[in-house]
């Protein structure tokens, strides 16, 4: 089903329904892991992020207990695939840089690095223990799903959900401001996670105000995508530091790092311009707007 609340049931019931759909989707994807491991990892991580985005809506009343335990299980399921995901993303980042800056000499260097990264990625996929991680992740999702199914979702009210959305928005605004000042990749990555959750929250609550929240979700999603690429480039830069392991010279590494830095600056410019739009509201105004929308539908 669509990743959205319908507005036809209490908000806690909506959370439960969408969560169970996401758990079912993740387990169905993991059941055919062998058909395309990379696609399974990608799709499973998407389910994982959406699940954690909904769990975030319960944060004002849940710092511990069964839902926190379910959240940890989902987090652990994603971590089972971190090495495979990172290895693939590094290849894809090389491809994006090749497409954008495919000059003869630099293109050759990037191609050399990509070949080594692909070998590392292939080794992970060919590891006999790797399919067991898919089975373990499926069990993690199954256990978390049982906790979600049994929990009393009547505890989650509209006010709790609105407070959670605004809290995430406020934290994202803080990361936006500190990232703009520092240009630190790790700070930008934290901002990216908050922007991604914000896009989920707008999408889930779209029924309140489709003409407003739908476009806001799209803007936040695009921002998160740019920041995601920014993070991927920063991770590639860290990998390039091991130039001997990649079989290239220190001088070649500096050439590639300068290229990465150039692309990160481009992405930062786009992200900060978009951030000014995504975080235009004061957090208090956002909460008031949600409350007014809810009152209009009551």
Give the structure's gist in a few sentences.
With about 300 residues, the chain is mainly α. It has helices at about 10-30, 35-55, 65-80, 80-100, 105-125, 130-150, 160-180, 185-205, 210-240, 245, 250-280, 285-295.
**Mean pLDDT score:** 92
The major beta sheet can be summarized as: none
Computed Rg? 21 Å
Low-confidence stretches: none
Q: Into how many domains do the coordinates divide?
A: 2
The dominant shape is globular
Assess the beta-strand content as a share of residues: under 5%
Structural overview:
The protein folds into two domains: 110 residues, Four Helix Bundle (Hemerythrin (Met), subunit A); 142 residues. Helix content is 82%, strand content 0%. With 298 residues, it is mainly alpha-helical. The two termini are 25 Å apart.
List keywords for this structure.
mainly alpha, 298 residues, 12 helices, globular
Topology overview:
Layout: H1 11-31, H2 37-56, H3 66-79, H4 82-101, H5 104-126, H6 130-150, H7 158-182, H8 185-204, H9 210-240, H10 243-246, H11 250-278, H12 283-297
Helix pairs in contact: 1-2, 1-6, 2-3, 2-8, 3-6, 4-5, 4-9, 7-8, 7-12, 8-9, 9-11
């Amino acid at each position: 089903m669509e990743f959205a609340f319908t507005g036809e049931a209490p908000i806690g019931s909506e959370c439960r329904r969408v969560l169970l759909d996401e758990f079912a989707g993740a387990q169905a994807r993991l059941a055919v892991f062998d058909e395309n491991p990379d696609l399974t990892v990608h799709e499973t991580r998407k389910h994982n992020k959406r699940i954690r985005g909904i769990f975030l809506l319960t944060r004002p009343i849940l710092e511990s207990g069964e839902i926190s335990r379910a959240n940890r299980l989902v987090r652990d399921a994603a971590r089972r695939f971190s090495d495979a995901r990172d290895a693939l993303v590094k290849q894809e980042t090389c491809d994006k840089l090749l497409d954008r800056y495919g000059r003869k000499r630099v293109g050759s260097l990037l191609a050399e690095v990509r070949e080594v990264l692909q070998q590392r990625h292939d080794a992970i996929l060919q590891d006999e223990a790797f399919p067991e991680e898919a089975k373990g992740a499926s069990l993690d999702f199954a256990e978390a799903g049982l906790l979600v199914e049994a929990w009393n979702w009547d505890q989650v009210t509209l006010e709790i959900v609105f407070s959670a959305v605004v809290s995430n928005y406020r934290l994202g605004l803080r990361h936006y401001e500190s990232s703009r000042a520092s240009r630190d990749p790790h700070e930008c990555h934290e901002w990216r996670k908050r922007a991604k959750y914000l896009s989920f929250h707008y999408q889930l609550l779209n029924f309140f105000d489709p003409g407003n929240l739908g476009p806001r979700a799209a803007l936040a999603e695009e921002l998160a995508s740019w920041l995601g690429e920014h993070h991927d480039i920063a991770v590639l830069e860290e990998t390039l530091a091991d130039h001997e392991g990649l079989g290239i010279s220190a001088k070649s590494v500096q050439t590639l790092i300068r290229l990465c830095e150039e692309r990160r600056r481009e992405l930062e410019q786009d992200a900060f311009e978009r951030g000014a739009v995504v975080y235009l509201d004061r957090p208090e105004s956002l909460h008031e707007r949600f409350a007014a929308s809810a009152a209009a539908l009551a």
